[in-house]
Specification:
Layout (H helix, E strand, L loop, with lengths): L2 H6 L18 E2 L2 E4 L2 E4 L4 E11 L4 E10 L3 H15 L5 H4 L2 H16 L2 H12 L3 H29 L3 E3 L2 E9 L2 E5 L7 H12 L3 E5 L12 H7 L5 E3 L4 H10 L5 E5 L2 H10 L7 E5 L4 E5 L5 H13 L9 E7 L3 H13 L21 H14 L3 E2 L7 E2 L2 E2 L2 E4 L16 E7 L3 H9 L2 E2 L1 E5 L3 H11 L5 E4 L15 E2 L2 E2 L4 H7 L1 E9 L2 H12 L13
Parallel strand pairs: 1-5, 8-9, 8-11, 9-10, 11-12, 13-14, 13-21, 14-19, 18-19, 21-22
Antiparallel strand pairs: 2-3, 4-5, 6-7, 7-25, 12-24, 15-18, 16-17, 20-23
Helix pairs in contact: 2-9, 4-6, 4-8, 5-6, 6-7, 7-16, 9-10, 11-12
């Protein structure tokens, strides 16, 4: 069977879906979490259709898998008020709780979450088209992230468990919460990326309102009870609906102290502008990126092809860290494209539950037509698709396309395609890709492939001042989570990693007193009688 036949017949009939992979009925989410209560919703629901289509006699149709509440401004503001009340200007139970107790609550949640692994993985597959292997990896990585965050907080708190005496002043420096955090994650990693901001914000003593992405809502249903039972009322609140209707009123209230948002800069700008006191707003933003790969003439071609393939097509290229444009030296462009095309052809295409599948249907309804437009624009300006059947679409499925030679006249040169289209740009002088990186609106990562140590060193020294991660002979990526994750220019605000995120959602504060006999005795009494969670020398093991 050739590629065209495979793509034309890629969707199964209902009876062809393996019994063990079918959803047990539609997932109708009719509750939302506010102030420790799962409140029923009797209003309108947003219909959720899977990127997985079902073949009928005459067509293919996106499978209906459920619905979620289309809450209004009223419900969103009620959730916000619950979080603000729970914080109580820093006097709330959660924000004044000891670090050890907050850790215990987060551990309890993680334990409950692990019990829902199979269900969450199943919903990740059906809701956003993520392969079973990648869905399991996302879940397990999220659980590991929670454990690593706990360990990082222990380390941070141990340093803070001692007093400092300087110039006649006794002080204890700790990190305190910011207040109310609005957490909004992306559809491509709706669980992991949401939790990489939500968990640090929570464990540092903040209260939260979570607005899941439009694609990736149902998977939170199995976790709502765990959130309700693991944290005090009002500490974690979940709202569902249209971001454009819910987000701006929350921000316009002026009650949001920190915004954790992963998405487009356009949406982030609108949210920031809605806040009446932006100078009081702490930001942790993960935005667009157009990460380039630069393949030098002495590069190991097989390695470069393998890394660029994984970098540009993992989860169909729907990652902010994906390689989204490839610069290849003109002397090796032909063999690179040949090997790259062969590698694409070997990628298994199919449904998320199929073993070792690499290319799956796309969750955004308009994405295939958008990608087709980008290719057509490039072709009008002289480029071509270099791999057989590249760009062939069938409903929500889009076969990967390598496009060459791409230049500055084409939309693919600057636009972040966020899908399985790989623009390839030939260059003769290294100044061309370097100038591209310097002039780009984005500055997240770059991958460099080559063997000349002097040349690589020179590029590293320059490019670390343009992007926030330079990958040598390897794809762009986020992990390991202990490494800082951020970007320059329009790619990010703030830095995330296991330890950086704890700092992003807290502020250094201290209690201080003159070094007098009376003050020493006062502090000793507070510590001895455990009267304060802040003034404490407890050492968390």
């Amino acid at each position: 069977m050739d590629i065209r036949e495979r793509i034309n017949g890629i969707f199964p009939a209902e009876e062809e879906i393996p019994a063990e992979c079918r959803l047990d009925g539609a997932v109708e989410l009719r509750e939302y979490l506010v102030n420790g209560e799962l409140r029923p919703w009797e209003g309108a629901l947003q219909e959720v259709r899977s990127p997985v289509c079902v073949r009928t006699r005459t067509s293919v149709e996106r499978k209906l898998i459920g619905g979620f509440p289309l809450l209004t401004e009223k419900e969103a503001l009620a959730a916000l008020d619950a979080a603000v009340c729970a914080y109580d200007s820093g006097r709330g139970l959660w924000s004044t709780m000891s670090v050890a107790c907050r850790i215990d609550r987060v551990r309890e949640f993680a334990s409950r979450m692990e019990g829902e692994r199979d269900r969450v993985v199943e919903l990740l597959m059906w809701e956003i088209g993520k392969s079973r292997r990648d869905a399991e990896k996302e879940f397990d990585r999220t659980v590991d992230y929670i454990a690593d965050t706990i360990d990082a907080l222990k380390d941070l708190d141990r340093v803070s468990s001692r007093f400092v005496i300087a110039q006649g002043i006794i002080g204890q420096v700790r990190r305190a919460p910011l207040g109310m955090v609005l957490s909004m994650g992306p559809y491509n990693y709706p669980l992991n990326e949401t939790f990489t901001t939500l968990i640090p914000a929570l464990i540092m003593g903040n209260t939260t309102v979570v607005k899941p992405p439009r694609h990736g809502v149902l998977l939170f249903q199995p976790l709502l009870e765990a959130f309700r039972d693991s944290f005090p009322p009002g500490v974690v609140n979940f709202v569902f609906g249209e971001g454009r209707k819910i987000g701006p009123p929350l921000m316009a209230s002026g009650k949001v102290d920190a915004l954790a948002f992963i998405g487009t800069s356009k949406a982030a700008n609108a949210l920031q502008k809605a806040h009446p006191r932006p100078h009081r707003l702490r930001l942790a933003l993960g935005l667009e990126a157009k990460n380039p790969a630069v393949i030098l003439p002495d590069a190991d071609l097989e390695l470069a092809v393998a890394e660029c393939l994984a970098g540009s097509l993992s989860f169909n290229g729907q990652r902010c860290t994906a390689i989204k444009i490839v610069f290849v030296h003109e002397s090796i462009a032909a063999p690179f494209l040949h090997l790259f095309g062969e590698a694409i052809e070997k990628l298994p295409c199919g449904m998320p539950w199929e073993q070792n599948v690499a290319i799956t249907p796309l969750p955004e309804p308009d994405k295939p037509s958008y990608l087709t437009e980008l290719i057509a624009d490039a072709e009008r300006h002289g480029a071509r698709v270099t791999n057989e059947w590249g760009g062939l679409a069938n409903a929500t499925f889009f076969y990967p396309a390598a496009v060459y030679p791409v230049d500055e006249r084409m939309r693919l040169y600057r636009e972040e395609q966020f899908g399985p289209v790989i623009p390839v740009v030939p260059f003769g002088d290294i100044a061309a890709p370097v100038d591209y990186i310097v002039s780009s609106d984005y500055g997240q990562q770059v991958s460099i492939f080559g063997r000349d140590s002097a040349h690589i060193a020179s590029l590293v020294d320059h490019l670390v001042n343009q992007v926030c991660r330079v990958n040598i002979n390897s794809q762009c990526q986020r992990g390991p989570d202990i490494f800082p994750f951020t970007g320059r220019k329009d790619s990010a605000v703030g830095t995330l990693s296991v330890s950086d995120a704890l700092r992003a959602f807290s502020i250094r504060t201290l209690a201080a007193a003159k070094e007098t006999k009376a003050n020493k005795e006062l502090i000793r009494t507070i510590i001895r009688d455990r009267k304060s969670n802040f003034l404490s020398t407890d050492f968390i093991l």
